[in-house]
Amino acid sequence: MKPMRTALATFLAATLAAGAVIATRSSQRQGLSPLPTNPGATPIELVFAQPFALDVPYTHSWRAEAPDASSGWILVLRTDPALLERRQTAEPVLYAGSETGERVNNGDGGNLVVLVPSALGANGLPVLDPTKVPIWFGTPELPERVDAQRIASELALATKQGVGPATSTAIRAQASLGTIFAPDRGDLDSYLADLIELYSPTETDLVAGLRVSITR
Questions:
Q1: What whole-number distance in Å separates Cα of residue 85 and Cα of residue 33?
Q2: Distance between CA atoms of residues 102 and 113, nearest Å
Q3: pLDDT tens across 36-63, in order?
Q4: What residue ranges do the domains of the chain occupy?
């Protein structure tokens, strides 16, 4: 079993339209901001990116196929906080290239910690490059209902709308962090808790919960 290594301490169509209408009405009942009519147009900044690799895979439940994932990227994205408000119905699904992103935290204040699964290439790094693929929020849906066909159609729509890679003005400074190796998702969660504490410090309950899971 590989030891966990961290450098964080040193870094301190009609159906879619109908879904949007339903989500907007639900948002109004919950006192949430209305969903944007075109979430893909909302600017996203990539402020942190680090590869991860696990000995034991976990289930990527943020897509319909629920595939096993044992490697990929940890990202921190910055965008309009209104876009990140959690809803009990369809919400803009986060995509990175041909994959969905798991929203680890709520994104209070506009900083969202994300896991994006990706197989490793021959160089030991994830095949998906977050600095080169489009990263965007697609049309509202429940993430667990999004399959490969839906991802392909959302990517085609985003490409048609001119969505490209997220801006990444500060990401180069973090190139020395290296890959995070952890035994399993529970160990990775403790690292994610540190990131949430750093980038979204008001989410104290979530941070505490993620840290408790590793001590059980």
A1: 8
A2: 8
A3: 678 888 999 999 999 999 999 999 999 9
A4: 8-215
